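The records we work with from here on pair a chain with its fold. The integers have meaning only within a learned vocabulary of local backbone shapes. A complete example follows; check for yourself that the lines match position by position.

:::
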Amino acid sequence: MIPTELLEKIRRIEFHSRHLVNEIFGGDYHSVFKGRGMEFAEVREYTPGDEIRTIDWNVTARTGKPFIKLFDEERELTLILMIDASASGAFGTSGSMKRGLAAELAAVLAFSAIKNNDKAGVLLFTEEVETFIPPRKGKNHVLSVIHAILQHEPKNKGTNYEIASQYLVNSLRKKAIVVMISDFIGESYQNGLKILNQKHDLINLHLQDQWELELPNLGLLNIHDAETNEFMAIDTAKKSLRDDYALKQRNRLLTTETFFKRNRMDYLRLLTSESYVNKLSTFFRNRAKRMKR
């Protein structure tokens, strides 16, 4: 039995997401996601001008004549929402917590998938894979995905991207669109994302709170690191402390952005204090244009 409060939250997210689907994707979901693979259709005899790389050597050897493979573009997509459920997601000083923003983003993407008769699934991970719902079609399935995200209580505090990435690679036979939703704290994400990017069409949504970029002047604060469980008292009235913190965070962000740019991975940073609609819409429109080139 789903608690009434959770059910109402699911309904609100469903209503909000359905409205945003057209606003963000403009009804052209497939032009945004060109990560579709090719599936084998048939063979035919080779004719001059055909691509040599498409020759089916088994059939050619068996018949004594060169044959090539013909492929059809796959008619349906598989979308996997890969969500960092570590303890740092339960943080937000304005707008919403990172975990709440992750749920909204996942809902918008999942409803976009089912509107186009595609499959959607979710993987929630911390230091291990905690929940994996294989991709399926249909509204009821998407609602179960949203429910799983909202009601999930992490068993672990930390994050291991490599374990989660390898699990997904081993679990999916065909190429999928994988949307990683995470705050990318630390640099442990790099090997895991490289593993994913080799097999799947990877999109990375980086969630941040404004306090993770700069501290306000609020005097003495007791800070708790949810992932390490460490407590620390800091005096935010000290300008030198705030400046040092801001510099450290800018350098960390630069390292993250440089990694994605160097490895040519799709990347978008979103703040919990801002509306994600315009930024996400622009991001996907630009992606669609780039994929058409």
In short: The chain has nine helices and ten strands. The chain has two domains: 4-32+75-292, 38-73.
